[in-house]
Task: structure prediction
Amino acid sequence: MQRRELRLPAALYGEVTPGSATSALDPKRASKDQDRHYNLRRREWRPSLGSMVLLRQHQLSNAAEGFAAKLAPKFDGPYRVVKFISPNIVRLAREGELKRRVANVMQLKSFYQEEDGEDGECHPQEAGETRPAGSKNVTNP
Result:
């Protein structure tokens, strides 16, 4: 007919492509390589006993009250780590309150305080927030 030999789909799958030779021969090595690349920017963080942390809040929007969850603060705090119940569960206490909360480590973020040189007051600053040297806290009237 067309003067060429027919190829069945099974014959196509038997061919080795350039990138698949190593993973087909050693799947454990390929998995290890993928793990290394995936975990490259993920670092495990655990709060220390007595450290100050922020707790992630889960807000729900309510149209009847005119509340939009996306505009609400994402973290509440600061809280002090009082006790480790398990390696992943901690008991938290807020300064001046008797009520204690229990939270998973994944819901926590470290809390940093910024000291102002002139008046000696501490101002809360979230992790990752940077301010140029010598700048002051300015509030809009």
Q: What stands out?
A: Residues 27-38 form the longest helix (12 residues). The two ends are 86 Å apart (CA to CA). The CA atoms of residues 79 and 125 lie 14 Å apart.
